[in-house]
C-alpha cells in the first residue's frame, strides 16, 4: 500500500474496475424457435432462409431452404402456409408473405438452373420408394443426398402424384412441377414410370432393396349411395381431375353439380367452370364456416362464378339430370340434420367429391401391419410394423397436403438412413418458442404485406392460366425484409449500442456479438431492447 | 430538413444498426471503431441512462470533430462515477472544476483554443469544446454561468443529461424534478404528495429565449436522432445546447432493464417533447409514433407509486395527462400538427 496521501486506487483507467462482479443476472445469446418454423409441416427453417433472402442472396436462401424441401416452386404455389398463420408479424400489421417469397426463390432456381449437389459419397445401400408424389419425391431426394441408391416406382405415366392428378393447372403449372421433379432425378434418382408395385415384399427381394418407403396417394374416390337412374351421369372428382391430364378432357356439360365441401370440391367446380360450364354449383351439407376447404379458395371460386348451396344434401338423381336436394339445418351441437324440405336442381353431370381412399393392395401378405380407417399405421420413425418398410403421405394417418407429404418424406428418409446403419435417428430437441411476447416490436419499420397479383377474372373463368402471380425481385426483397427474425439474431447492433457499460463486443459482419462479462453489470437493457428476442437473462445464483 | 429516418430496411433507423445498411447510413454507435469515450469500468448503476447518453453524445461529437475534443464536466453523477481520482473512464481530455461553473470553464477553454489557433494563423480552433452536466448543475447551480455563456455566444456545446434530480447525493429535488415525484426532499405525504405542481424550469426554452444558434432535446431511446443532433450542433459555431432525457433506475425506482423503455414512453406520451430549434425558433419536432397514456410511463417508476394502488390519485395522473396534451399542442407532436411555441427575436445572431 505505497500510495500517495488520500489515494486508495491505482492510478489509471477505469478498466481496472471489473464491474462484472456486481452482476446477479447475466445476459446470454440464445436461439429461439420462430413460430413459422414451428408451424411448418415440412420442417422448413423458414426464418433461416429468409435471413439470406433479406440480403438478396437468393441462391444461398434457396440452398438453405432445399435442405428441408426440394420443391419450393411447387410449395410456393400449393402450400396452405400454416407458417403465415403463426407469423408474429400478423400481430403487428400482417404476416410476412413467406409463401410468396418461397415461390420467388423456387422460380429463381428454375430460371437460373440451380442444381442439387451430388452426394459426397455412396453408401452402397438400395432403397425403393413407391409413389412419385410429394412424400415419395421428398424421401427420394433426402435419401439420395445421404448417398443411398434410390429407385422410385410410380404407377402412373408421369411423376407428381396428386400434385399432377389432383391439383389443377391454374394453381400449379405443369412446367414448374416438371422442372422440380427433373432436378431430383438429375441427382441420380432412378424414376420408373408405369411401374405399379403389386407386392412389396416380392419387389424388394427381386431387386435387392435394403429398405422401402411407401407413399401411395389417395387416388380412389369415396362413393356414397345416392339413388340414381341409369341415364344419370355421376362422376367422381378424382377421375375428373385426372382426366384433365389426358388428351381428352372430361365432358361435363353445361350445368355441373359438385357434391362435397373439401378443397377437391372447390378444385373440381373451378375446373368445370374453365371447361365451359355455365353453372357450377357446389352442394354442401353444412355452412361456409364449417367447410373444410380453405376460405381463400372458396372466395376465389365465388369470384369466378361458382355457386354454393349451403346446408343441402343430394337425395336423388333422377332422369334428365333432375336432382333432388334436401335442405338441412344445424342442431345445437352444430351437426346438420334434415328438415324434410326438398328442392330440385338441373344438372348435366353430378361430380362426387366426398373424400378419397388409398389402394393398399401392394401390402397384401406383408405380416405385422396394422390398419385403421383405411390407412396403415406407422411409429414415430415412420416405420410400419414390418421392419424395413416405412410409409408416409396420404397412406398414413395425417392431413393430406403436399406440405405434410414432403415432411413425411424427409422424416422417413432420416429414419431409414439411421435404420440402414443399425442405429436410430433422434429428433433434435426443440428450442424455446419465440412467441410475440419475447419480441420488442417497436424496432420494426411499419410495412404492410405485398399483395401478389391475381389473374383477371375473365381469364380465370375461361383458361387454365395460373391464377396467382408471383413477386418480382424488388417486392420479394421487400417481403423478405418484413421478417422479424423471431428468436434469431439478425445483427441489428442494438445490444452493442444500448449497453451503458460497453460490455458487448461486436465481432464483425456475420460473426455477431459476445458479452464481456468482466464489465457487464447485468442490467438487462440488451435483452429488453433486443428486437427479436435472441438474448435471455440467466441467474448467476446457480 | 430535420432528422431523416430510413424508410424501409426491416428496422430502418429504429435500431442502432443493421447488417443490411450501407456504411454511410449506419450510426456511430454501431461502428466497431466508435470512440467509447466513456469506457467500461465506470461506477454508474446498472442500467444508467446518463452513462449511456454520455457515451452516445460524446462518441458522436468525437466522430464529428475528428477526435479533437475537450470535455468540461460539472459536478454530478457523471463526474463522480466516471472519475473517482485517480481512475478515469474518459478516453478524451477532460476537466472538472466546480459544481456550477462548467459553462464558464468551457468558455475559458474555448478562448484558449481560439488564441492558440490565431497564433498558428488559423481563423478558428480545430479543437472543439463540450461542457456537460446533470440537471442539478445545469438548471439550478450553474444556470447563471450557462446563461452568460449563451448570452456571449461562446463556442461551446453544452449538454445537459437530465435525470430529474440530484442523484449522486441521494436523490434530492432539482428544478428539473417533475411534479408529484417522490425525492428525498419531496416525500409523498400530505394532500399534495411529492414535488409541487407549478414549479421548476424548462431550460431548453430558456436556452431558446437567448436566441442561440442551436437548441435541441433528445432521449436515450432514439439514438439516431441524438447522434444527428450532436453532429449537427458540432457543425455549427457559437453557443449550442442539447438537453438529453436520461432515466435513472436508482432515483426513479425503475427496473434497470427499463431505462430505454421509459425514455421511449416519455417521448411517446408527450411528456418530453423532442425537438430542435435554431435562433430561438423550433425547426423540427419528432412526432409521436405510437401514442401512449401517461399512466404507462408513470407506472414503471416507484417515485410515482403513491399515485397508484388503493389510494390512487387519478386527479394527479390527469394533471400529467394535461401536461402531455399541452406539449402535444404546443409542439405539434402528432402527425400533421404545427409548432406553436418559439421565439422569433434573434435574427441579429445569424
Rough outline of chain B: globular
Q: In CATH's first tier, which class of the largest domain in chain A applies?
A: Alpha Beta
Q: How many distinct beta strands of chain B? A: 9
- Largest interface: pair, residues per side: A-B, 54 and 52 residues
Question: Could you characterize what this model shows?
Answer:
The complex is a heterodimer of chains A (542) and B (350). Chain A is an alpha/beta fold and 542 residues long. Chain A has four domains: 69 residues, 2-Layer Sandwich (Alpha-Beta Plaits); 122 residues, Fumarate Reductase Iron-sulfur Protein, Chain B, domain 2 (Orthogonal Bundle), CATH 1.10.1060.10; 157 residues, FAD/NAD(P)-binding domain; 132 residues, FAD/NAD(P)-binding domain (3-Layer(bba) Sandwich). Helix content of chain A is 29%, strand content 17%. Chain A is built from 18 helices and 22 strands. In chain A, strands 5-4-3-6-19 form a five-stranded parallel β-sheet, covered by helices on one side. Chain A has a five-stranded parallel β-sheet with strand order 8-15-9-10-11. A three-stranded antiparallel β-sheet of chain A has the order 12-13-14, with no helix packed on it. In chain A, a hairpin with a 5-residue loop joins strand 13 and strand 14. The radius of gyration of chain A is 28 Å and the shape is globular. Chain B is an alpha/beta fold and 350 residues long. Chain B has one domain: 3-Layer(aba) Sandwich (Rossmann fold), CATH 3.40.50. Helices cover 33% and strands 13% of the residues of chain B. Chain B has an eight-stranded mixed β-sheet with strand order 3-1-4-5-7-6-8-9, with helices on both faces. In chain B, helix 1 crosses helix 7. The chains are: A alpha/beta (542), B alpha/beta (350). Chains A and B meet through strand 1, helix 17 and helix 18 of A and helix 1, strand 2 and helix 9 of B. Strand 1 of chain A pairs parallel with strand 2 of chain B.
